[in-house]
Amino acid sequence: MVDGYTRIPDDEVDAFYEDLARRSIADVPSLRKVTAVPATRRVRGIPSEVPLDEDDGMPGACVLNFDSVIVMPKSWFVEPICQLSPERMVQACRALAVAVGC
After folding, report:
1. What's the pLDDT at 14?
2. Quick check: 71 and 34 in contact, CB under 8 A?
3. At 59, which CATH number?
4. Is residue 89 part of a domain?
5. Phi/psi class of residue 42: alpha, beta or left (left: φ > 0; alpha: ψ in -120 to 50)?
6. Looking only at Cα atoms, what is the longest distance across the chain?
7. How far apart are CA 88 and CA 27, in angstroms?
8. How many domains does the chain have?
9. Which partner from 48, 76, 88, 92 sits 20 to 30 angstroms from 11, CA to CA?
10. Which of 98, 20, 35 is nearest to 69 (CA)?
C-alpha cells in the first residue's frame, strides 16, 4: 500500500491502459468531463511530451504536451482525430507521470 492506495500489479495496469486505448469516451455515457492533452507543433524535446505523426493518425508531426493537461466538457469532442496504440499509451502514461511528478 502506498499513501493509502493498494499497488496494482504492472501487468494489470498494462491491461487497464490497453483497454482505455481501445475505448472511446463515447462509451461512458455518465462521463461529463474528460482529461485532455493538447497537441502542438512546438516540440521542446522534453520527457513530458509524446511525439505523434501521420502514422499515429494525426494530420502532421506534433507532440502531446502533458505539461498542459486540462479538463474539458465531453460534449466538445465531436469526432476522434486518432487513437493511441498501446505503445503510445505507455509513452503517454510515462509523460504524464513526469509532468505531475509521480
Report:
1. 42
2. yes
3. 2.30.30.110
4. yes
5. beta
6. 43
7. 21
8. 1
9. 48
10. 35
Asked if residue 73 is part of any domain, the answer here is yes
Residue pLDDT, tens place only, 23-77: 566 677 777 888 889 999 999 999 999 999 999 999 899 999 999 999 988 888 8
H runs (alpha helix) in 37-101:
86-100
pLDDT at 24: 63
Task: Report strand pairing: 39-40 vs 62-65.
Answer: antiparallel
Length of the chain: 102
pLDDT at 88: 94
85 neighbors 21 (Cβ within 8 angstroms): yes
Residues in a beta bridge with 5: 2
> Are the CB atoms for 28 and 77 separated by under 8 Å?
no
CA end-to-end span of the chain: 15
* Other CB atoms within 10 A of residue 93 CB: 16
| Helix%, strand%, coil% for the chain, nearest 5 | 40, 20, 40
- pTM score, two decimals? 0.68
